[in-house]
Amino acid sequence: MYNPFTLESKTILVTGASSGIGRSTAIECSKLGAKLIITGRNAERLKETFLMLVGEGHQNIEADLSDDAQIDELVEQLPNLNGLVNNAGLTETILTQFVKRENIEKVLGINTIAPILLTQKILKKKKISCGGSIVFTCSISGTCVAVGGNVLYSTSKGAIHGFVKNAALDLAVKGIRVNEVCPGMINTSILDRGKIGEEELRIEASKYPMKRFGNPNEVSYGIIYLLSDASSFVTGTGIVIDGGFTLQ
């Protein structure tokens, strides 16, 4: 059956694959025929993802991407890639006037510096093919909207937004595409950490035209489009996946 979104014969690295959008992306990519290399900091949850993958030939590699040495070790273990999904990230709620250096280094270290360095090292080792696709999980926060207490997360994603556009220009001559997805609020483990109450979540969801938050698989489908040959003439762009939130 004809399928322009197939990932057959493609090898794809997904970071932050132990939960949420990363886990969903890895699983959905495997269903479409890709061989996955998944990585994350939590070995137990990473193994859970690995056991959910469809097909054979997949690898899971535990790595903390805040550690340059572990990035180097990960890159050395990689086969030649057709796709890279830079998804690993974290959030920390803090008001501007209370930001400290350690907060900046923690959030930007994982959300901004780590994916940029991983991408650079993969490129330097020539481990992504001509025709390959690099996709970043960005956000509408930092690119389209602002939220109180979200200054560091927005800053980290705003920086990624700029990196995507510039890297897309740099790598176009090599036949490598660079894009991003920009989700709104998504039902992931971030919402389960107790910092946001049920009533607050209900009120926040009511602000979305579709009256709900998104699900991880709804973001992964956008990532799959950007990894597939269906998007072969798409680079330097972002797909907003926010249920219409930014239309208001």
Offer a concise description of the structure:
The protein has helices at residues 20-31, 43-52, 68-77, 101-124, 151-172, 198-206, 216-227; strands at residues 11-15, 35-40, 59-62, 81-86, 128-137, 177-183, 238-241.
What features would you highlight for this structure?
single chain; 248 residues; alpha/beta; Rossmann fold; seven-stranded parallel sheet; 7 helices; 7 strands; 17% strand
Task: Characterise the protein shown here.
By secondary structure, the protein is α/β, with parallel strands linked by helices. It has a single domain (11-190, 217-240), classed as 3-Layer(aba) Sandwich (Rossmann fold), CATH 3.40.50. Helices cover 40% and strands 17% of the residues. The chain contains seven helices and seven strands, in the order E-H-E-H-E-H-E-H-E-H-E-H-H-E. The chain has helices at 20-31, 43-52, 68-77, 101-124, 151-172, 198-206, 216-227, and strands at 11-15, 35-40, 59-62, 81-86, 128-137, 177-183, 238-241. The protein has a seven-stranded parallel sheet with strand order 3-2-1-4-5-6-7, with helices on both faces. Strand 2 (35-40), helix 2 (43-52) and strand 3 form a beta-alpha-beta unit. The longest helix is centred in the middle third of the chain and has 24 residues, at 101-124. The radius of gyration is 17 Å and the shape is globular.
